[in-house]
Amino acid sequence: MFHTISNTNLTGSRARHLLLASALPALLAGAVPAHAADDANADAQALVIEGFPLLNVDPLQFGRIVPSGLGGSVMIDANTGTVSTIGQVVAVGSDQTRARFTVDAPVGVIMILAGDPTVELTRAGGTETMTASLIHRGTTNLSVTDVFRLPIGLIATNPNQEIYTGGSLVIGGNQAEGNYEGTFTLMVSYL
User: Fold this and answer.
1) How far apart are CA 97 and CA 59, in angstroms?
2) Average pLDDT in the 101-127 region?
3) Which end of the chain is flanked by fewer CB atoms within 10 Å, N or C?
């Protein structure tokens, strides 16, 4: 869109300035700023892996126990497997063992252990029960690390980690004779 100058008495530089001033808004209205356009592509990758298998290798065995009329507890240390008793019970033989689990996580993986805090053992063929308090510990090729500023994680320091469960089984003074069994769960979450 151009404006026409109708005054013919304009001459020289004054006419040029007026012509330029009248044409400039029309020129600027249609002007589009120039931008350099560049494109770049990037690859996206993901590796999906299955969880690291957690296997129960050895069960938690409180072994053979002889109670008295007062009762007591049999304890198996989760860290060492050491067996001890409190009260009037006797652990007979040497078949007591802490539970042992294995997991093959890569070095540097952080694991959080969670498991049942107790297990109820029920007499086979009966309804009598005993309860054991459980303690779960990672020991072989694992070291404690901070998770959310709490020392609750375990970090894999070598492949083939072992996790142990021990506990304390309470035996009543007149506990019925028999074989007692129960099941507990150990879970490992990975960060």
Assistant:
1) 7
2) 89
3) N
